[in-house]
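Here's what a typical entry looks like (DHA2 family efflux MFS transporter permease subunit):
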Amino acid sequence: MTQQSVATSNKLDAAVLKVAGVVVLGAIMSILDVTVVSVALPTFQSEFGATYARVAWTMTGYTLALATVIPLSGWAADRFGTKRLYMVALALFTIGSGLCATADSIGELIAWRVVQGLGGGMLMPLGMTIMTRAAGPHRIGRLMAVLGIPMLLGPIGGPILGGWLIDTASWHWIFLINLPIGVIALIYAQLALPKDNPEPSESFDFLGMLMLSPGLALFLYGVSSLPEAGTVRDNKVWLPMLVGAVLVVSFVFYSFRPRHPLLDLRLFRNRNLTIATVTLFVFIIAFMGAGLLFPSYFLQVRGESTLTAGLLMAPQGLGAMLTMPIAGMLADKVPVGRTVPFALVLIAAGFFTFTQVDPHTSYWLLCGSLFVMGLGMGGTMMPIMTSALKTLHAAEVARGSTLVNILQQIGGSVGAAVMSVILTSKLNGSEVIPGVTDPSGKPVTQAGLAIAAQQRPELLQQFPVPPSLIERGLDFAASSFATTFWVGFALVLLTFIPAAFLPRRREPSHLLDGGTGEEQRPTPVPIH
């Protein structure tokens, strides 16, 4: 193929952009939903009278559902067709959104969030499959650059939209808004996506799924029950943790037996894939877990409205939007071992500010730190994933992409559960106010009353206490957030260890496009 014909074929025609529009719409809806919910967690706490560790399950359950269906989507797409399955995923996500809005308890909301996650988890990998087929492997890099910026509007717009909807209407609308978007996306998909011919493929590892998914859910449920139980010896804590751990360990041993396992752990023989996956896993536990707490600090300690908290989170998305396209171009020319450590330095520098928070920390400092973290994040995840998958043989790419992406979702689930448990445990250590109980008869702590009073000042008339007590409560709450951020910061620093072993020189890619000799780019799926 001549240079001129390659350049011509690299251009994205109208037909490809029409298909890209469907995928972008589904991606924005799915990604928007995660960031919208992140600013709503304190609202769920007050609405349902639940602890932070309990309401964090609206995120943990969602990401666990994503992890369950990512490996299922490739098999199902071959069996039922990508267009049909993509429309089913859109419908499931939209129906799940409507059901979330009807929830009367935190348990119901978590259950419907799982339904939402089952749909949302298929949207991204199926979308990438549809895009690769429409554009061809040689144009996927250019396509990812086009898709990257609209998809980053989710993290920027989500907290702002969520805050505005909660302030002007109610929390129900953060889910109801998906209904009209979902209907439009379904109609658009029906009209724009080309018909495909499903071809039954390899068998699906249902036994592996029955071990891994319940195992992770049970283990994380035990961990998140710790603050409420107060001790590891409680049956509600150790029993699910033990059963979950046994299932996960059993899965690891079992996964080497089937020809097509749910997760092909044999791929860890590839050094690059192993190092990249470990780096991503540790990073995501820190960043995604602690990242959920940033808006909560603005809401609970600073007493901001949900809209203001959303606006204060916007610099992080803006930073990522600036560096992600640049990092995508550099990933083809410069080994990630030379770029990712610099991106991690930016993340660590921004993160450190949050370990020092108090009730009066400058917003200029916090927003500047979020922007710096965003710059670092844009140069971290996609380059690492691309580097990992480039050294795999073409036949291994689908399994490698599944492995990397499912471990991302597991990392996000673990991070959300662990960070919420640490924060809840610290807040539970606040001093009890003598003789003051809530409507259910439970004693009220200084930090608990101070946080509640930030959102509902009228409570101070119901519980007349001196201003100094509220100030002490806010100091304690801010200190609890800072301690939790220290854990996240330590994990970010830990990420530098595997990152030091990322490839520092260019390595030949094994991904060749159908004998043409052209490099075929892997299509990693961005984390939700």
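Residues 1-8, 511-528 have pLDDT under 50 and may be disordered.

More examples are in the samples folder.
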